[in-house]
Amino acid sequence: MLDKTFDPKSAEPRLYAAWENSGAFSPTDDPAAEPFSIVIPPPNVTGSLHIGHALNNTLQDVLIRFERMRGKAALWLPGTDHAGIATQMVVERQLAERGNRSRRDMGRDEFVAKVWEWKAESGGTIVNQLRRLGASCDWSRERFTLDEGLSAAVRKVFVQLHKEKLIYRDKRLVNWDPHFQTAISDLEVEAREVDGHYWHFAYPLEDGSGEIVVATTRPETMLGDTAVAVHPSDERYKALVGKAVRLPIVNRPIPIIADEYPDPEKGSGAVKITPAHDFNDFAVGKRHNLPMINLFDDFAKINDNAPPEYRGLDRFVARKKVIEQFEALGLLRGIEKTKHTVPHGDRSGVVVEPYLTDQWYVAADVLAKPAIKAVEAGDTVFVPKHWEKTYFEWMRNIQPWCVSRQLWWGHRIPAWYGPDGKAFVEETEAEALKKAEEHYGRPTPLKQDEDVLDTWFSSGLWPFSTMGWPEKTADLARFYPTHTLITGFDIIFFWVARMMMQGIHFTGEVPFKRVFINALVRDATGAKMSKSKGNVMDPLDLVDEFGADALRFTLTAMSGQARDIKLSKPRIEGYRNFGTKLWNATRFCQMNGCARAEGFDPAAVTAPLNRWIVGETQRTAAAVTTALAGCGFDEAANGLYRFIWNQFCDWYVELAKPLLTGDDAAAKAETQATAAWVLDVILTLLHPVMPFITEELWEQTADLGAARKHGGFLMTAPWPDLPENLVDPAADAEIGLIIETITEGRSVRQGLNVPPSAQPPLLVVEASGAQQAVLERSAALIGRLLRVSEVRVVDAAPAGAIPYVVAGATLALPVAEFIDIAAERARLGKEVANLAADIDRTAKKLANPDFVARAPEEVVEENRDRLADAQAARDKLQAALSRLEGV
RNA sequence: GGGCGGCUAGCUCAGCUGGUUAGAGCACCUCGUUUACACCGAGGGGGUCGGGGGUUCGAAUCCCUCGCCGCCCA
User: Fold this and answer.
1) Which chain B nucleotides are covered by protein, judged by CB under 7 A?
2) Which residues in 397-426 of chain A line strand B, with CB less than 7 A from it?
3) Based on the domain organization, do A552 and A600 belong to the same domain?
4) pLDDT tens by residue, A466-513
5) Are residues A644 and A677 in the same domain?
């Protein structure tokens, strides 16, 4: 006998270990099985599981379990990302906490060794947390982006792109993060709105004939100004173009130039040009061949290109000093408060500076073209589809991708420099040396590029690098392209787009056929969860409190498309209760001898109740299958919820009780067998979403009755494929009548406060022959649930009997002694009014010749039936009401 | 400034290609321990589907417009 509730704490680890040890997570090697693969969005190796991971991985697990049960060779390939900046940050912080030497004191080799050490120690955290969720990843194929195989893929990709001139080295402005002292890509820059000022500075004309006023939000950059620009059409300045101003503080003459860039409407119409520290000014500088004076060092401190009193100052200190000096010089013309957006590093949070450096760039625009076409052609589809717009928007405006990072943790760039600075880009140092010898005519020592690659450069290869590419492996042949990618919208640009570009370029195929974009999990009030807000819900705490199944079901049921998930505990609790409900329904079946019958055929059952539930089971199975196949996760979960709770538990089990305890041995046996069959189907359908409780119930019911065809784990059991002809409209009608009779009858009883102990007969006053037969035959079922003594057919309702109408039949409950006349009059009056309103609405519709002429025949017919039914019901109740008036 | 998403019961959300008396869960009120389950059962109250136009025989659903709210890009 089952316990009263499921105990996730003991069952989950046991079941997971059993699955894992059995090898069930690996795809079948049956060559006939259709491959179905997904690759995990590799979490940062530094990470621990947050609620977003829980959602994302639950959905992946639901999908992979579903497809595995459908007989596919289902591969869910797991792994982690080395996450350059994030990991380097974590380890540096840890070193500092432990009082170790700093990264720089330690040196590159020692530091990188420390990071590997750290990875060996704590890199497995998130992977183990995924196990607690129930994720059925194939751990035997687990990968890490810095694995040797993946690193080889990275080198090959870099070298090939370089040879194709799609990777090149260039000196230009990059977004520089002074905290980490590295370049970052456009995507890693976050525009934040901050309060700032416009400082208006006067630059005296060189010839002493006056001044020109410019405004800036970054005064310190004036130290690197190399021109003042005005619009060529700006009459105010026409005469000044070609002249020079003397740059205050620096005391250097700089030209006044005409360029399209300044907006005459804004400020004074004149702008200072600092080509080395502003993206727009850089472009102006290029057009006019202006000198580019770099003012900063890697820490954004002022360098030796500035006047001596500024050297070594922090940029913000220098800013103050510049303002003070302008004021002292009498050249400060005004200060204006303003809100403006300032670029910040997304990891460091510090203000990012445009900084002139040598970096490696990928010609993303070239790679983007086929990636755009692939989505246009439908080779890869987004679900929900509207995300394609976001993808296109970015891809069509893509900028060169800066891929070099001045970090130590990551894939070292495979470029070696000769003494003259010439770069040899090869997959190995040996190859580079060989090329150098050819080039220089003698063996020449080379020095490898110090930089590493953007983490996303390697994760962009993830779908195929993890499968062994560039080797032609069996996995690559079988599982690439992958089928579905499930990920968050926040990394469509970072990751999805890069995978598309690199995947198509290097394999000639899209990396995945479908991208499902999952929602963002927020707290119950809709706020984004963050540590600083303190509203973070730790998925592992939730698993502890409610079990993994409850959390999984919640996330699945709430994963409606294009919507945030507002997660709250009562919701999870409710779905935990749902698991308990199923558990107890199984317990009930077990107590009542429900056991699988040898050779049971659901199509052959005869009792209407059994025929009905078999049909409903088929409908549910079909709906769930369709939903899951189309990533309709919430639909699948909600469909199962309704079927299991509102149909199986509320009605089938209740209506089955008389059969299970009755004298009709044949009906009893059939019901027992049917219940067992339905339960097995339920467990199967629910398994992808709630794997633990279903597997446990599967095991606990393994010995009840005939052995299952599939002897092993539920997780590897075949998915139900039920024929549509299991649905029997006659059984539906019959059970529908019974359910309505009970529901409406209860409403009457409770509306009149008839005590539960009262057991009047149910009178059938007027009904079709078929209805009469159904009601009489089902007296036992109805009796129990409506608490009536019998079902009796009568010619007319006795005085004081309370009538109600169900499916055109008039039924009545003789409960005169309990009636409060006024209450009953009110009830009948309300019913009649409702019906009258409906009649009115429907009659109007039918009276409209346009409706009758233009609406489809079936809709018109439906309305006619509806009108007739409502009128009949109203007449009956009206008559009862009149009798009541007479009383 | 450009784009995207949302606005349906007190709360969280379903309602997909127009035809249901607009649904569910939670919360609320009343009743109930009938041998699966109180992590339960039964019944009930509660919404002019953000505002305004339009298309249509018919609009929560399609179109236009306005208003909020959120996100992304500049």
Assistant:
1) 3-6, 12-15, 19, 21, 25-27, 30-44, 56-58, 71-74
2) 397
3) yes
4) 999 899 999 999 999 999 999 988 888 889 999 999 999 999 999 999
5) yes
Render pLDDT for A269-290 as a digit per residue (tens, 0 to 9).
888 999 988 988 888 888 888 8
Domain count, chain A: 5
pLDDT at A524 over 70: no
CA gap A691, A714 in Å, rounded = 9
Residue A617 — very low, low, confident or very high, per pLDDT cuts 50/70/90?
very high
ipTM of this predicted structure: 0.94
- Answer for A560: CB within 7 Å of strand B: yes
Confidence of residue A78 (pLDDT cuts 50, 70, 90): very high
* Tens-place pLDDT, residues A31-61: 999 999 999 999 988 888 888 889 999 999 9
Cα A236 to Cα A258: distance, rounded to the nearest angstrom:
12
Asked if residue A175 is part of any domain, the answer here is no
The values of phi and psi at residue A868, to 5°, are -60, -45
What would the mean pLDDT of A208-222 be, rounded to a whole number?
Answer: 87
Structure tokens at A880: 């009862």
Give me A847's structure tokens: 């009276």
The chain-wide mean pLDDT, for chain A, equals 88
* Å: A298 CA to B14 C1': 55
∠ at Cα A749 (A748, A754), nearest 5°? 145
Say how far A203 CA is from B34 C1', in Å. Answer: 94
**What local confidence, expressed as pLDDT, does residue A533 receive?**
65
Q: What is the CATH number of the domain that holds A838?
A: 1.10.287.380
pTM equals 0.91
CATH number at residue A809: 3.30.2320
Q: How many Å apart are CA A459 and CA A667, to the nearest integer?
A: 61
Among candidate residues A143, A173, A172, A145, the one with its CA nearest the CA of residue A157: A145
User: CA-to-C1' distance for A638 and B24, Å?
Assistant: 9
Q: Is the CB of A693 under 7 A from strand B?
A: no
Q: What is the pLDDT of residue A516?
A: 92
**A407: exposed, middle or buried (C-beta count within 10 Å: 0-12, 13-18, 19+)?**
buried
Verify that A72 and A137 share a domain, yes or no: yes
Most confident among A191-205, A219-233, A400-414, A688-702 (mean pLDDT): A688-702
- Tell me: do A257 and A220 sit in the same domain: yes
Residues A198 and A108 in one domain: no
Same domain for A591 and A722?
A: yes
**Residues 865-884/A with CB < 7 A to strand B:** 866
Phi, psi of A353 (to 5 degrees): -110, 135
Strand B: which residues 500-529 of A lie within 7 A (CB)? 524, 526, 528
The type of residue at A311 is: R
Residues A874, A837 contacting (CB under 8 angstroms): no
Together in a domain, A560 and A694: yes
Structural domain for A564, as ranges: 540-727
A559 sits within 7 Å of strand B by its CB: no
Residue A203 included in any domain? yes
Evaluate if the CB of A533 falls below 7 Å from strand B. no
- The helix/strand count (H/E) of chain A reads as 30, 29
- The DSSP symbol for A382 reads E
Q: Residue A525 falls within a domain, yes or no? A: yes
**CATH number, position A713:** 1.10.730.10
CA A845 from centroid of its chain's CA atoms: 45
| Interatomic separation, CA of residue A849 and C1' of nucleotide B61, rounded (Å) | 24
Query: Which pLDDT does position A525 carry in this prediction?
Result: 64
Query: Are residues A59 and A101 part of one domain?
Result: yes
**Nearest nt (C1') from A387 Cα:** B4
Classify residue A796: in a domain, yes or no: yes
pLDDT band at A530 (very low <50, low <70, confident <90, very high): low
Domain finish residue from A770, A786, A819: A819
A280 touches strand B (CB under 7 A): no
